[in-house]
Amino acid sequence: MVNRNLLRQFDSAEDDILGIDDIFTKEISEWIQSEDQDYEANKIVTGKVLEIRGDDVVIDIGYKSEGVIKLDEWREEGTDASPPKPGDTVEVLLETVESEDGTIQLSYRKAKRQKEWNAILAKHKEGDVVAGKVLKKIKGGLLVNIGVNVFLPASQVDIRRPQSIDEYIDRTIECVILKIDEQRRNIVVSRRKLIEDRRKIQKDKLLGELEIGQIRTGVVKNIAEFGAFVDLGGIDGLLHITDMGWHRVTNPRDVVQIDQSLEVYILHIDREKEKIALSLKHKTPSPWQNIEAKYPINSRHNGEVVNIMPYGAFVKLEPGIEGLVHISEMSWVKRIADPKELVQIGDKVEVQVLNINHDKKEISLGMKQCQSNPWGEVAKKYPTGTVITGVVRNLTNYGAFIEIEEGIDGLLHVSDMSYVRKVSNPSEVVQKGQKITCVVLSVDQERKRVALGLKQMGNDPWETDIPGRYKPGQKVQGKVTKLTNFGVFVQLEEGLEGLLHISELSDDKIESPEEVVKVGDDVDVKVLRVDAKDRKIGLSMKNVDDNTVPDDVQDLPIEGPEAEKAMEEKLKATREKEAKKEKEGGSSSGSKEAPKEKEGLRGGTGAAGPLFQLPGDKKE
Q1: Which residues contact 141 (CB under 8 A, 6 or more apart)?
Q2: Which residues contact 361 (CB under 8 A, 6 or more apart)?
Q3: Pair 528, 601: CB distance under 8 Å
Q4: N or C: which end of the chain has fewer CB within 10 A?
Q5: What gap in Å lies between CA 510 and CA 487, rounded to an integer?
Q6: Global model pTM greater than 0.85
Q7: Could you report the per-residue pLDDT of 55-97, keeping only the tens digit for each?
Q8: Cα–Cα–Cα angle for 308, 292, 214, nearest 5°?
Q9: How many CA atoms lie within 13 A of 88 on its CB side?
């Protein structure tokens, strides 16, 4: 309390006395800090800015000494933060009550952070939805300010991780708080979980509303080789490439683009697996409706080649309608190994409708049906007996194909190459690319086959020449060409062979021809029989110099590739029979030797194959 009587002794005016009184009563609260403040480390206290010393701010918190805070702590808050002025009251954090030099350490920035942190904890908890601005990209994610800086991992930015998270910088986004670490003052948030939670609610609602046949609006979210995924507003549906149009689609990006808004048709719903099939083409009627009326069988149309496969070409008749021209239906005459020999993608072609399978949505087309068929005139142009000249186009093990004209081939069979020569491979007579003259033997127009003959170009030597030069009983010389179980083939001249049966090799019993001759040996033989009809000659090495022929030479005209097999089987049966008789004769002491059967001609050969006859066989 001011002693006014004492002041009056110094002649002070009453007004001055009143001024001093006002000063004491007015500023006493400002000079002495409140004793309610708790001066403990890491506590927020109130202080007064005393002065600004360069970059230092001197603050009095009512403690034994003042504290100093760098002016940068206000500047770090951004351009909106105003620097302090002497006399301002501020809240600061008391970091250290008394340092080694006796001063106290204060922080404006940390006090502000702690107040913000306390405010967030008071307002939010884990699971709450918060909004904030993305400040910058940091290691592993983004830094978002929701009142305090929080961490948004890159994996939690979106449902599908974006190629770059930089696009989110400076954007305000909503997130859900995943975790709060009060001790470390860390908060982790997720935008992905928020989207998933909201989509789950939308998905359940949407699945309850969706019905097959509805038209819905969606947004293309992803594109793959097999189609596109469309967000219907809570659930994705698959728009398969085959359902993008009635026409052929090879690349989904030719039809849809990312983030494109589409109206789609609900094609199928699997509510258990939460899968939805979508379609664009089903929004319009199928072009296959009334297809038989638009493209009747045997009608001709112009189309475009849109795809080529090894087995044929696909021709587009109209958008959504394609037919297959099989490789066999491309040409009457050309032998096509690859459809690209005739057509290329983009070619305009005329086709004829061959067949329609409405259920499978397939149309069979033909190109050759729009052209004249050269096989229709083959029988007239090349009647039997016509001599033609062609080129050997191909060789097989049974003959040679001769090109008569483009697309028309005739077969020259090995059996029609020579009258006397046994031809085992056509390359022995003709070569590929060789020009050769033949005669037409027959024409099968339905099966598109022409039979040709080479030997028919001359006279048959078996009718005149061979029977005149080879007589029964005649001694001739030949060369062994082949050994079999039943005998030996002997070449009498080029292309002409005879059969020397095993029974005619020697007067003694022979088990195998190798006991007497071998391939390449020159032998003298006697002609036993000449069969001009079956083109066979039978030979013998017994009594070669005797020009007589036994009267019991018998005939069994077995021809062709089965002759040798048949001969072996009969020879085996004969030997078994003889062995059985010998065994039975030896078991009886008084028995006489069984009489031998008459031996006669066992075989002969020519261009048509071997001839043989076994004792006791009846003539056929």
Answers
A1: 151, 152, 153, 154, 155, 156, 157, 165
A2: 288
A3: yes
A4: N
A5: 10
A6: no
A7: 888 877 777 777 787 777 777 655 456 778 888 888 777 777 7
A8: 85
A9: 13
